[in-house]
Design goal:
With 189 residues, the protein is an all-alpha fold. Helix content is 79%, strand content 0%.
Length: 189
């Protein structure tokens, strides 16, 4: 990517996140406001994006790609795909972006962000796990969709302070639920 394009997009992302954080996620971001904050013309904005939602979509894709790159790096270093590894990376990802997640969880359309994260994670995890699990495409898609839907829901509640545990405790709880399943967890209590 051309450095100028990268700088412009970074300015737009920074402006977008700044507007969200200033308004604590309670207002809709407009192109005019975003262009003003990024110190660019509206025309420049439209050279890179068709609308404000596309900014969020690209931002989500970039963040999830960073998360999946960590997973690929671990795999390249000889570590096998595992639920623990996935949760370690997911927790690190959420910790690094906590303020954004808190704001988005308060936003009316913050669900869009979580749905994008879930969709990208389902695709990426399916891709990462495909080689190591002997499942059909349908089985893999259903399993990934099932677990990621639950994970996103639990993390959303946690970010909204509706589950009073630390990030590490939450990761352990969710990992246990994913690995052991409800039946085995009930048997242990």
């Amino acid at each position: 990517m051309d450095r100028r394009i990268g700088k412009t997009k970074a300015a737009i992302w920074d402006a977008y996140l700044s507007i969200l954080m200033d308004g604590k996620g309670r207002k809709k971001v407009t192109v005019s406001e975003l262009a003003r904050k990024a110190d660019i013309d509206r025309k420049t904005f439209y050279l890179h994006y068709s609308d404000v939602d596309e900014v969020m979509q690209e931002y989500c894709e970039q963040r999830v790609e960073q998360c999946m790159e960590r997973l690929r790096k671990e795999k390249d270093e000889g570590k096998e795909f595992s639920v623990k590894l996935l949760f370690d990376i997911l927790n690190q990802f959420i910790s690094e972006n906590m303020e954004l997640f808190e704001i988005l969880s308060l936003q009316k359309d913050g669900n869009y962000f979580w749905q994008e994260i879930k969709k990208l994670m389902v695709e990426s995890i399916g891709e990462a796990a495909r080689e190591e699990l002997n499942f059909s495409e349908t089985q893999l898609k259903v399993l990934c969709e099932f677990y990621m839907s639950g994970i996103v829901a639990v993390y959303t509640l946690w970010i909204q302070n509706r589950i009073p545990v630390t990030a590490e405790e939450l990761a352990e709880l969710v990992k246990d639920a994913a690995v052991k399943g409800l039946e085995r967890m009930v048997e242990e209590t």
